[in-house]
Design brief:
Strand content: 5-15%
Largest sheet: 4 strands, antiparallel
Radius of gyration: 20 Å
Strand order of the largest sheet: 3-4-5-6
Length: 199
């Protein structure tokens, strides 16, 4: 990201416009071989990530909140009961990542839509995506546990046996400082006062 300053200078035309914000995202490895052929000039470190937000803020450019204060707000749609991906053959899938992995495509295909337009679902397969695991002791003792309640990606946690932590864990301190400098802080204070989920 050696040209980040030039990029933000171009976007400075939107400075002060509350209708325009940057939604920063890491480049992530969701499987496949393409990620290995990508340039090394990518955002990986949380410090770089926060530095870019600060550079944008100095130019008056807002950054969309990626911090999800609320249990499960940071999850994708896969572990949600009535969320499905429907392919061209009317098959029902839960995860768009598992769809392209040979070893997980079968458990990902949880049913189909029949000729009458009714969803026929294999409840055992669906349970893999919906039923929560026993919370590990390490998670229960984590200071960030109230932010996630161990509700993390079922693809990584169950199908890949990976311990998945919320992204915000590494950036929380930096991000709270950012919130304090912007109008987003008022939004989150309002959340606490009115007791409803933001974002």
């Amino acid at each position: 990201m050696s040209n980040i300053n030039e990029y933000l200078d171009e976007l400075a035309v939107f400075a002060g416009n509350e209708h325009f914000q940057i939604h920063w995202q890491y480049v992530k490895d969701y499987g496949g071989e393409q990620v290995h052929s990508m340039t090394e000039d990518r955002i990986f470190e949380s410090n770089d990530f926060v530095d870019f937000i600060n550079l944008a803020t100095k130019r008056g450019i807002g950054s969309l909140s990626y911090m999800f204060f609320g249990v499960g707000n940071g999850l994708c749609e896969a572990p949600r009961k009535y969320s499905y991906f429907i392919d061209h053959e009317a098959k029902l899938h839960k995860c768009t990542i598992a769809l392209y992995q040979d070893d997980t495509s079968e458990v990902n295909n949880i049913g189909y839509i029949n000729e009458q337009g009714v969803a026929v679902i294999d409840e055992e397969k669906e349970a893999v995506w919906l039923i929560r695991d026993t919370v590990e002791e390490e998670c229960e003792n984590c200071v960030y546990f109230p932010l996630c309640m161990a509700q993390t990606c079922p693809y990584g946690r169950k199908l890949r046996n990976k311990k998945v932590c919320i992204n915000e864990k590494d950036e929380l301190v930096h991000y709270m400082r950012y919130l304090a400098k912007t109008s987003l802080f008022k939004e989150y204070r309002k959340v606490g006062e009115e007791n409803y989920a933001c974002v």
